[in-house]
């Protein structure tokens, strides 16, 4: 068990790559979800390492962790991956008639909003 920054960076890469593969998303979709330039995400995936601050969360890093938390929440809410992806792509009144994906693309804070919406549905 290593707590080195390299281990963290590699672990975050593996998680993001896993989310990308599970949902069948292009790298550009992952970039839009975490509000990063596609070139940044492409660089991470080529290196197998997601660089985050070693001194705690920065505003830039928060989006990465928010996406991971959303993935965990949606995986708890829907058993099947196809149901998870369908939900993410379906328009909802709660998000102004946008799909959760489109809603998240609008603003970085919307990742948290979508996760909290699902959490509230899980724990009424």
Unreliable spans are: none
Fraction of residues in H or I helices: 55-70%
For the biggest sheet, the summary is: none
Q: How is the quaternary structure best described? A: single chain
- Taken in chain order, the helices and strands follow as HHHHHHH
- The tally of strands reads 0
Provide the descriptors you would attach to this structure in a database record.
68% helix; 7 helices; mainly alpha
Descriptive account of the structure:
The chain is an all-alpha fold. Helices cover 68% and strands 0% of the residues. It has seven helices and no strands. It has helices at residues 5-23, 27-33, 38-47, 59-77, 81-89, 100-106, 110-122. Helix 4 packs parallel to helix 7. The longest helix is centred in the N-terminal third of the chain and has 19 residues, at 5-23.
How would you summarize this macromolecular structure in one to three sentences?
The chain has about 120 residues and is mainly α. Helix content is about 70%, strand content about 0%. It has helices at about 5-25, 25-35, 40-45, 60-75, 80-90, 100-105, 110-120.
How is the topology of this model organized?
Elements: H1 5-23, H2 27-33, H3 38-47, H4 59-77, H5 81-89, H6 100-106, H7 110-122
Helix pairs in contact: 2-3, 4-7, 6-7
């Amino acid at each position: 068990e290593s707590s080195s920054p390299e281990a963290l960076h590699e672990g975050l890469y593996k998680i993001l790559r896993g989310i990308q593969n599970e949902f069948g998303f292009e790298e550009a979709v992952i970039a839009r979800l975490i509000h990063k330039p596609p070139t940044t995400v492409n660089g991470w995936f080529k290196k197998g390492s997601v660089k985050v601050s070693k001194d705690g969360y920065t505003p830039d890093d928060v989006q990465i962790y928010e996406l991971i938390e959303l993935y965990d929440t949606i995986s708890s809410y829907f058993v099947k991956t196809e149901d998870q992806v369908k939900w993410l792509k379906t328009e909802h009144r709660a998000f102004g008639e946008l799909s959760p994906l489109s809603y998240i693309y609008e603003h970085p804070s919307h990742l948290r909003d979508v996760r909290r919406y699902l959490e509230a549905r899980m724990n009424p």
